[in-house]
Every structure is written in structure tokens, then in C-alpha cells.
Amino acid sequence: MDIQLPQIIYQLVNFGVVFGAVTYLLYKPVQKILDDRAKRISDSLSEAEKIELEKEKIDSLKKKSKREADKEATIILENAQKAAVSKKKELVEKTKEVLQEDMKKAQASWKNEKKQLLIDSKKQMVDAVVEVSSLVLGKKLDSKTDDKFIAQNLEKVLKDI
Amino acid sequence: MKKVIVTTANKISSKNLETLKKSLVKKYGKELEYDLRLDPSVIGGIKIVVGSRSIDMTVKGQLSQISKQVVTKI
User: Fold this and answer.
1) What is the number of structural domains in chain B?
2) Cβ-based interface (< 8 Å): residues of B facing A
3) Least C-beta-crowded within 10 Å: which of A1, A80, B21, B50?
4) Are strands B32-38 and B53-58 parallel, antiparallel or unpaired?
């Protein structure tokens, strides 16, 4: 096998021409495609980072909102409990007052009834005494005694009339 | 003429009636009309009404007055 120099030169020139043509015709578009792709990837990554950041922000906001909502709910619950306790206390006090008032009224009414009963009993007793006295005096007071009684009282009667 | 109502349980004696009339004439003059009433329920004593004035010295009246006083003090 002989080394043919012209053949080699031809091959080299041929290679050079092909290389030059390929470089001229393909390198730039491929480079551009690669650059575009790299840019797209970079943009996508950047966008993904942005989205990630946004997501973290939203998550943080959500957590914050939840915390605030929980806090607010706790405050509302506490206030409601306080109001309920206060209302319960107020109702108990009111009920106590009403019961005490009723008890006082009942006691007063009972005392009055007792007093009235006592007065009625005494009146009945007086009436009975008067009734008995009338019967006894009616039997004992004859015409003569009555005349004496009138004579004794006549002076006073005539003085007052 | 003034009306005098005299209420007793038994018939009033003439002596007591005379004393009564004399006193009333002195106080009210002679123009008096007497109405003598018998009411056994007064038990004894005498009740006299002259016009609008009245005095009750009957046993019933006295008992009633005592009863009223006792009841008032209860």
C-alpha cells in the first residue's frame, strides 16, 4: 500500500471544504437551537423557581391566615364563654332575687293571715262573752232592778242629751 | 215640735218618766212629743233620742260599746 500524497491532500482539502461548509451551514443554526433550548430551560427553571417561591409565599400566607383564623376563633369562643358565664350568673342572681321576693311575700302573707286569724279569734271570743253576758243579764235583770238601773243612769243621760 | 223616743226593755216607771220629762222640758222647752218604746232586746237601761241627738245607756248598748273597744284594742 503506497501513500499517495496528492490523494491525502485532496482528502484534506475535501475534508476542509466539507468541514467549512458544514460549519458555515449547520453550526450557527444548531448553536442557535441549542442556545434557544438552553434559554428555554433556563427560563423554565427560573419560572419554576418563581412558582416555587410563589407557592411558598401562598403556603406561608395560608398558614398565617389559618393561625389568625384560629386565634380569632379562640377569641370569639372565649368571649362567648365569658358572655355565657356572665349571663348564667345574671340569671342565677335574678332567680335568687325573684325567689327571695316570693318568699318574703309568702311570709308576709302568712303573717297577715296569722294576725287576721288571731284577731278573728279574739273578736269571736269577745262576741261570745257579750252574748253570754247578755243572756245572764237578761235573766237577772227584772223590772224592778231595771228601774233602779235607769234611775241611777238617768241623771247622766239627761246631762249628756 | 221635737220628737223624743225613749226605748227601754221594761215599762219605764212613772217616777223615772217624770224626772225625764222635767229635765227635757228645761233643756228643749214644752214642745216635745214622746214616743215610749218597749224593746226586750236592749235587756235593760234606757235609750233616748231627741231630734238628731241620741244617748244609749241600755245594757245592750253598753255591751256593744265594750265589745267595740275591746276589738279596737286587739
Assistant:
1) 1
2) 8-13, 15-16, 19-20, 23-24, 27, 40, 43-46, 48, 50, 53-55, 57, 59-60, 63-64, 66-67, 70-71, 74
3) A1
4) unpaired
Residue whose cell numbers read 503506497? A2
Instruction: Output the domain CATH number for residue B53.
Output: 3.30.360
What is the ipTM metric for this complex? 0.83
Q: Which three cell numbers stand for residue A83?
A: 358572655
Q: Is A58 exposed, middle or buried (0-12, 13-18, 19+ CB in 10 A)?
A: exposed
pTM exceeds 0.90 for this model: no
DSSP-assigned states of every residue in A74-98 = HHHHHHHHHHHHHHHHHHHHHHHHH
Given the C-alpha cell 255591751, which residue does it identify?
Answer: B63
Give the range of the structural domain holding residue B26, as residue numbers without chain letter: 2-73
Phi-psi category of residue B48: left, alpha or beta, with phi > 0 → left and psi -120 to 50 → alpha: beta
